[in-house]
């Protein structure tokens, strides 16, 4: 298992390098000029100076290698320095800086991270809490009215895009019923019970929109996996030796059915970050997704490059985690 | 036996003999037994017919703005109300549906072409397998939505200049959705081709000297059609959703050439005033995707020989 993990980690390196090259090349070879949005009154000489200050006059391979060095060596070193307070080397490193704000991209991302993590994390937890019981009951009482309704609702939840559910939620709960605010206030400080309640209120809609979409998908997997396991021989054995139905279903079958579902959850997390782009845009949560949209609209190439690459790292990482988890949870799986 | 009985018996025999059991008929009877799939097919056909022929019945020009009738609710003249420029929403929804469906089908076709091509090549030619599957894995690890946004932002203006504002954005969106959603199909097709390649009829074909391209077209492709059909159906749904997500983020189709996603995006700013501007396009979008997903589900069951005949 350990050898497998190490090998997969080593294998991830060329994949990530290839992805970083693709992202860099797409952004770099695109026919748009980063100085194109500047006023026309700027003279060509000044324009050339601006271009060289942005590091654009070097040839393509050199810029790529410089970016790699900044991303893989300088930024992690900076993070370590920030966390531990040590000084590594001279402490004067080239950092990936945003063109729009002139501040290091990593700082911008760290600033935005908590909002996204809260919304995405909570939505995952809620999704699991909703999906697992529905999947279990649906499978156990297959073709019952609960199952019929459950599969229909999960199909509907799976088909309706989050930007529509989000807007319907706003129309329903903020405009008509006025229960929840439609805009997420990030400057809100929790210092009393009332402000805590307000924080819960403003988190409910974005989290529920993401949670419902995820729960619909998860409950389908949960149901299929339970159905597979309920027909296994070990279930008959467990019943034959006189275990109560409760123990058979809740302990034997549920535990085994969770194995594929856990890997699906792990594989889902990067896509949730992608989905959060839309949800954050609807509810004006200033998280990573909104940062990406701002970066794209402002043609802030270093910011967009870094964020896209972070999303790619998340995908590769969680693929790895899913594989390893599968090997740990299911003893029949042996990676050689 | 009376004459009448004889005639009856003869017609029964005729009917039985006229209707031999074919694979297609088996699949169809299994598909019709799936209630969800039939309902989905019906709804999808209604939507397709509606957006194709609706504009001939509801003849208001979707771009005509009647400033005296702005932000109106539902009425007989404007069944879905009007927007802030007095344009008729129903006409816009019909027009947007045409574009949305066209984008879905075209992007799906591109994805199926690449998926089948890569899958067949990787499954059939062992030398290409390693490299093609690495490329597939690489594409699967790409963050699709951010990348799509970036590509659209960078190439939009160039393509608009080259092909005109509408055709340019259409080609761009269809092409990039197609080129980023072929991977699952390629994997499924490759698996099936790997198994098919070892079957006797392929060996027989090869032993009489059939060239590779003819084996692929004649013997391999018809046998992998069923997984391709299933992923094609589900692919329409994903392509429509992806396109609307892009339009919803403001990086898809322009307002004067809207899709359902763009109508949602434009309506979102006015939803306190006229909620119907959000509800109708969203409802149509969700209904289409839901019906297509149900058809895909039924198709998968019908084409799966383990389930069929049970």
From TrEMBL, chain A:
Organism name: Pontivivens nitratireducens
UniProt entry tagged with the keyword Transport: yes
PANTHER family listed in its UniProt record: DIPEPTIDE TRANSPORT SYSTEM PERMEASE PROTEIN DPPB-RELATED
Family, as annotated: Belongs to the binding-protein-dependent transport system permease family.
Topology in the lipid bilayer: Multi-pass membrane protein
Cited InterPro entries: BPD_transp_1_N (IPR045621), MetI-like (IPR000515), MetI-like_sf (IPR035906)
GO BP terms: transmembrane transport
Subcellular location(s) per record: Cell membrane
Keywords for the protein's UniProt record, in alphabetical order: Cell membrane, Membrane, Transmembrane, Transmembrane helix, Transport
Segments forming domain ABC transmembrane type-1: 113-322
Any single GO CC term annotated in Swiss-Prot or TrEMBL for this entry: plasma membrane
Lineage, top ranks: Bacteria, Pseudomonadati, Pseudomonadota, Alphaproteobacteria, Rhodobacterales
Positions of transmembrane segments: 9-30, 117-140, 152-176, 196-216, 259-283, 303-329
Identification of the protein by name: ABC transporter permease
Domain of life, per lineage: Bacteria
């Amino acid at each position: 298992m350990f050898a497998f993990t190490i090998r997969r980690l080593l294998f991830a390196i060329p994949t990530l390098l290839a992805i970083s090259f693709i992202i860099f090349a797409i952004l770099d070879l695109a026919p748009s000029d980063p100085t194109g949005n500047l006023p026309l009154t700027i003279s060509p000489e000044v324009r050339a100076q601006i271009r060289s200050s942005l590091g654009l006059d070097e040839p393509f391979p050199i810029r790529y290698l410089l970016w790699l060095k900044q991303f893989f060596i300088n930024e992690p070193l900076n993070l370590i320095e920030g966390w531990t307070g040590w000084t590594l080397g001279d402490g004067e490193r080239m950092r990936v800086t945003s063109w729009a704000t002139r501040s290091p991209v990593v700082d911008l991302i760290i600033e935005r991270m908590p909002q996204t993590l809260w919304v995405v994390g909570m939505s995952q937890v809620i999704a699991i809490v909703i999906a697992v019981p529905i999947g279990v009951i649906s499978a156990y009482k297959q073709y019952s009215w609960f199952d019929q309704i459950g599969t229909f609702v999960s199909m509907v939840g799976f088909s309706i895009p989050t930007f529509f559910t989000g807007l319907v939620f706003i129309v329903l709960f903020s405009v008509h019923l006025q229960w929840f605010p439609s805009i997420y206030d990030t400057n809100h400080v929790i210092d009393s019970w009332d402000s805590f309640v307000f924080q819960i209120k403003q988190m409910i809609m974005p989290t529920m929109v993401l949670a419902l979409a995820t729960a619909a998908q998860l409950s389908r997997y949960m149901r299929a996996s339970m159905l597979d396991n309920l027909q296994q021989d070990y279930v008959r054995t467990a019943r034959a030796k006189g275990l109560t139905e409760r123990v058979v279903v809740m302990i034997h079958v549920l535990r085994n059915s969770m194995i594929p579902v856990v890997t699906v959850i792990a594989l889902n997390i990067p896509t949730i970050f992608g989905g959060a782009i839309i949800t954050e845009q609807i509810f004006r949560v200033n998280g990573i997704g909104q940062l990406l949209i701002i970066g794209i609209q402002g043609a802030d190439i270093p910011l967009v490059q870094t964020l896209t690459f972070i999303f790619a790292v998340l995908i590769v990482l969680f693929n790895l985690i899913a594989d390893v988890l599968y090997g740990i949870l299911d003893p029949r799986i042996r990676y050689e | 036996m009376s004459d009448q009985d004889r005639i009856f018996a003869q017609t029964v025999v005729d009917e039985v003999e006229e209707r031999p059991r074919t694979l297609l008929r088996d699949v169809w009877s299994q598909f019709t037994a799936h209630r969800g799939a039939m309902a989905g097919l019906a709804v999808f056909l209604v939507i397709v017919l509606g957006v194709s022929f609706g504009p001939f019945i509801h003849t208001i020009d979707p771009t005509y703005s009647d400033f005296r009738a702005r932000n109106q609710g539902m009425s007989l003249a404007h069944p879905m109300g009007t927007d802030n420029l007095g344009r008729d929403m129903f006409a816009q929804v019909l027009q947007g549906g045409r574009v949305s469906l066209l984008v879905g089908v075209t992007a799906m076709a591109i994805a199926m072409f690449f998926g089948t091509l890569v899958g067949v090549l990787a499954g059939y030619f062992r030398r290409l397998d390693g490299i093609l599957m690495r490329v597939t894995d690489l594409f699967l690890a790409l963050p699709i939505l951010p990348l799509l946004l970036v590509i659209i932002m960078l190439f939009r203006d160039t393509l608009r200049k080259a092909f005109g504002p509408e055709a340019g954005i259409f080609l761009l969106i269809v092409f990039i959705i197609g080129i980023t959603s072929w991977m699952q199909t390629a994997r499924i097709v490759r698996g099936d081709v790997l198994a098919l390649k070892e079957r006797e009829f392929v060996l027989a074909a090869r032993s009489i000297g059939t060239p590779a391209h003819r084996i692929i077209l004649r013997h391999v492709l018809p046998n992998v059609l069923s997984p391709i059909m299933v992923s094609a159906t589900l692919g329409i749904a994903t392509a429509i959703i992806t396109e609307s997500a892009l339009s919803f983020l403001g990086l898809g189709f322009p307002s004067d050439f809207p899709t359902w996603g763009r109508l949602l995006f434009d309506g979102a700013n006015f939803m306190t005033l006229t909620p119907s501007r959000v509800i109708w396009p969203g409802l149509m979008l969700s209904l289409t995707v839901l019906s297509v997903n149900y058809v895909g589900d039924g198709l998968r069951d019908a084409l799966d020989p383990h389930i069929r005949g049970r």
